[in-house]
Each structure stands twice: as structure tokens, then as C-alpha cells.
């Protein structure tokens, strides 16, 4: 069996191991329903073993990492936490001594969310590209100059190293691991079983354009942005949006850029393409997607999609549709 170990410590984020663990056990269930043997075995490890309490107060039972021999694990993933719980884990002498030999002999290793700090502090990320939670990207880059941080990706695969941006993106990464280890059909069945909207590719942004705008604070265009998202098939040029906002075109353009960091045209196209990727992942036809997101005819959608993502929408749909 493929032995997957999640390394936890006091104050860890519970969803970081529990979400991906459910994905791996879901793969075993799907395999059984197809007359195949279980493939994954999941273990939780900690420095001392025993019960370890998460940040939510829920405790999990673990094995001591010192009881595991190098070569026993095929996948080693360190989970994340908030800063006050993460720093003691980075400095833990037991983890610092045990992780390098386990990682060196594993088929793959990596982290969920900020768990990458633990491995990067050991030099295990040097020369690699990684993902981490958006709120920790700057801190990560400043602390580890030999590591390239992809601040936008949901997860990154760099050789044996797999890293996810955090929390729910660990689920996306686990689904990608299943597709790699087994096949896309099993990964799709697991996604359906867990009622996931779609299996998101790693290069998809951590943020939708709406969330990006919301992160900037109390946007004066919050209502307009919500309307744009709900009316992607409507005319969304600057004159139309400015009129809806009750401003002159020049004032609207200036204030919109200040509030969102993007021009209205760029914002609208990003929102439309973000929606298009979601719809394509559900297997909808190009004609239907183009009509729903306001990029009709399909040739217009294809041009914008290829320009932004470097892949044709038909190929994207074939690669990422939930089966």
C-alpha cells in the first residue's frame, strides 16, 4: 500500500490533514466499488505521539515520528498552523531530526498551507518552487531566499515536492495525487462523493476576482462587483458600468482601479474567464459557456482563454472536467 503520513503538532489546523485524508480514504472506497484493492494507508505523526490538540480544540491520536523508519512512508506531508503554533514546530528538535531522513527516502513529500515553513527551515525546499497560504507568502520569501514562492497557485508540483496554498487547497492537491497515482476516473469519483464543485488545477488562482477585490477592504464597488458576477452575459463596458455606478466614465475608471487594483476591462475579463473555467470543469459545451459568461461567440472565448492561460478551452475541459 501507499503509506501517506501527515505530520501534526499542537495547535495545527485540523482541516489540513483531515480534508486530504478523507480524499485518500475516499479513493480506497472508490477502488473497492470498482473491484480493486485499497491503495492508501493514512497515518498521523507527531513528535511524541499520543493525543495532539488542534487549534479548534479537537484532538487526534498520533504515532511518534521516531517510531517510523525511513523508507516506510511513500508520502510525507507537514500540515500548517497559525504563527504562534507554527514557530514551536519549526524549532522542535525531534521533528528537525526525524523529518530529513523520512523525506529523503519518500516517493514524494511536501506541505499543506504553512507547514512548508517546517520543511523550508531544514533546507528541504532550497532550489524549489512552492505554494503556501497567501497571507504567509511575503514572510516565507523573506525567510527563505533560496525558495521560489508562487503566491498565486493553489498547489505546486516540483519533482518529488508537492505544496499547497492552504486549508481546502490540500484537498485539491490530494485529488491531483490520486489522479497521478491511480487515474483521473477515481479522482473524479472521489470529488463527486465529497460533493466538490470541481477538481481545480494547481495553477488556478487562490483568489477569485471578487475575493481579490474584497480583500482590499470595504470596496465602494461591492454592490457593483456582485452585480457583475451575477450578470456576466450583460454588456459590461465602462460606459454601462459607470452609468450603473452613477459616475462619469473618467471618475469611475479612476476609482475602480484604486479600489480593485485592476482596470474595469481587465476585471470583467478575469471574472468571465474565472467563471468559464468553472463551467468547463463541469463539462459544459463551449457554446453554452461562451453564452453564459458573455464571451460569445465561442471563438471570442477561445481567443481570450488561450491568451490568458495558454491552453485551448476544449483541452482545458478535457483535462479538468469532473467525471
From TrEMBL:
GO molecular function: DNA binding
Coiled-coil ranges from the UniProt annotation: none
Highest taxon in the source lineage: Bacteria
Keyword Aminoacyl-tRNA synthetase among UniProt keywords: no
InterPro entries assigned: Class_I_gatase-like, DJ-1/PfpI, Homeodomain-like_sf, HTH_AraC, HTH_AraC-typ_CS, INH-QAR
PROSITE patterns: HTH_ARAC_FAMILY_1, HTH_ARAC_FAMILY_2
Domain HTH araC/xylS-type per the UniProt entry, residue ranges: 222-319
Keywords in alphabetical order: DNA-binding, Transcription, Transcription regulation
Keyword Acetylation tagged: no
Entries under PANTHER family matching the protein: ARAC-FAMILY TRANSCRIPTIONAL REGULATOR (PTHR43130), HTH-TYPE TRANSCRIPTIONAL REGULATOR RV1931C (PTHR43130:SF3)
Protein name: Transcriptional regulator GlxA family, contains an amidase domain and an AraC-type DNA-binding HTH domain
Source organism per UniProt: Chelatococcus sambhunathii
Amino acid at each position: 500500500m501507499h503509506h501517506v503520513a501527515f505530520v501534526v503538532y499542537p495547535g495545527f489546523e485540523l482541516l489540513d490533514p483531515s480534508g486530504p485524508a478523507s480524499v485518500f480514504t475516499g479513493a480506497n472506497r472508490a477502488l473497492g466499488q470498482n473491484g480493486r484493492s485499497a491503495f492508501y494507508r493514512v497515518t498521523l505523526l507527531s513528535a511524541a505521539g499520543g493525543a495532539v490538540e488542534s487549534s479548534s480544540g479537537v484532538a487526534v491520536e498520533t504515532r511518534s515520528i521516531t517510531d517510523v523508519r525511513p523508507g516506510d512512508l511513500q508520502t510525507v506531508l507537514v500540515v500548517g498552523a497559525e504563527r504562534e503554533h507554527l514557530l514551536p514546530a519549526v524549532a522542535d528538535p525531534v521533528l528537525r531530526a526525524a523529518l530529513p531522513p523520512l523525506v529523503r527516502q519518500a516517493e514524494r513529500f511536501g506541505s499543506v498551507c504553512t507547514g512548508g515553513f517546517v520543511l523550508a527551515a531544514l533546507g528541504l525546499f532550497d532550489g524549489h518552487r512552492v505554494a503556501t497560504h497567501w497571507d504567509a507568502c511575503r514572510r516565507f520569501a523573506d525567510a527563505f531566499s533560496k525558495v521560489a514562492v508562487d503566491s498565486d497557485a493553489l498547489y505546486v508540483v516540483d519533482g518529488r515536492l508537492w505544496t499547497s496554498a492552504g486549508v481546502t487547497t490540500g484537498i485539491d492537491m490530494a485529488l491531483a495525487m490520486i489522479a497521478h497515482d491511480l487515474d483521473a476516473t477515481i479522482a473524479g469519483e472521489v470529488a463527486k462523493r465529497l460533493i466538490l464543485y470541481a477538481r481545480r488545477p494547481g495553477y488556478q488562482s487562490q483568489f477569485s476576482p471578487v475575493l481579490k477585490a474584497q480583500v482590499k477592504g470595504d470596496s465602494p464597488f461591492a454592490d457593483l462587483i456582485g452585480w457583475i458576477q451575477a450578470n456576466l452575459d450583460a454588456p459590461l463596458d465602462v460606459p454601462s458600468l459607470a452609468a450603473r455606478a452613477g459616475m462619469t466614465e473618467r471618475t469611475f475608471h479612476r476609482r475602480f482601479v484604486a479600489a480593485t487594483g485592476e482596470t474595469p476591462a481587465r476585471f470583467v475579463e478575469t471574472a468571465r474567464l474565472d467563471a468559464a473555467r468553472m463551467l468547463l470543469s463541469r463539462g459544459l459545451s463551449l457554446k453554452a459557456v461562451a453564452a453564459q459568461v458573455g464571451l460569445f461567440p465561442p471563438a471570442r472565448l477561445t481567443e481570450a482563454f488561450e491568451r490568458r492561460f495558454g491552453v485551448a478551452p476544449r483541452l482545458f475541459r478535457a483535462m479538468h472536467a469532473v467525471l
